[in-house]
Amino acid sequence: MMTTDANLLDAGERVAMVSGASRGIGEAIARRLLGDGYRLSLGVRDVAATREKFPEDESRLIIERFDALEPCTADSWVSSTLDQFGALDALVNNAGIWKQVNFGSGSEQDLDDMWEVNVKAPFRLIRLALPHLKKCGTGRIVNIASTDGIRFRDTTCSIGYTMSKHALVAMSHAARHFGYDDGVRVTALCPGAVDTGMVDTVPGVTPLAERLQPATVAHVVATLLTLPNNASVAWMPLNTRLESTL
Ligand SMILES: NC(=O)c1ccc[n+]([C@@H]2O[C@H](COP(=O)([O-])OP(=O)(O)OC[C@H]3O[C@@H](n4cnc5c(N)ncnc54)[C@H](OP(=O)(O)O)[C@@H]3O)[C@@H](O)[C@H]2O)c1
């Protein structure tokens, strides 16, 4: 029998972790999830500066130090979240960096930095969070990848960034397999250009007026987090321009 009930998950008291919530897309996601009623744990490099932006009571929102280049901060952030809230329902891997590395420019160090921040840090967080996400039966992971995670657009693009985001998409597929039987659903969200500081110097980027707003990306993340277990979204392009297949 058909029903009008979409079986959406209620944010209720669900607990979500968001990395890189100090600014840009991460800040927008945090604001949206807070408004939706989540209890939040934000992982940021500058706790004091982020606290000024999010003065909410600690019973609803904690801010912990998380630096993708310091592996031990992933452990301490996940531990503090569990100590404070006693459970974990969602992880949003948002923190990321862009550097121009192609066959003619950029350094090995730039390449390593993108691998650390865009790939290894989300891997670490998923590894730590997965057992807890499995426990709740409706765990969710959203990895903020990019359209650069699902195609190579043209020779103006950073090959290094594209490689790192493709790896993040691959990891998202793997995590979906590892958590599926316990109700964990994983999405690689792949936006085109978003109006944040990150893209100011990116060559070939969508013109400013046509870029996505961070709040639009946050709206999609919030929607993904509410979908029931039988509405799995493996990956989702969110493009600002017409391209063949995305
Ligand atoms: N903007 C776009 O067009 C676009 C498009 C597709 C995907 N994305 C992806 O969306 C995510 C957010 O990007 P954004 O546009 O919001 O960029 P942004 O405004 O530059 O913000 C980047 C965020 O990542 C954090 N971060 C950087 N290095 C870090 C580290 N070592 N450890 C922990 N956090 C670190 C930053 O923290 P600090 O404040 O401490 O620097 C900041 O919160 C990234 O993964 C990016 O690749 C962006």
Task: Describe the fold and architecture.
It is a single chain. This protein has helices at 24-36, 47-53, 71-85, 108-136, 159-179, 214-226; strands at 15-19, 39-44, 61-65, 90-93, 140-144, 185-191, 235-238. The N and C termini lie far apart (35 Å). With 246 residues, it is of the alpha/beta class. It has a 7-stranded parallel beta sheet, with helices on both faces. The protein has one domain: 3-Layer(aba) Sandwich (Rossmann fold), CATH 3.40.50. Helix 5 links the parallel strand 5 (140-144) and strand 6 (185-191). The mean pLDDT is 97. It binds NADP nicotinamide-adenine-dinucleotide phosphate. The site of NADP nicotinamide-adenine-dinucleotide phosphate has 26 residues, from helix 1.
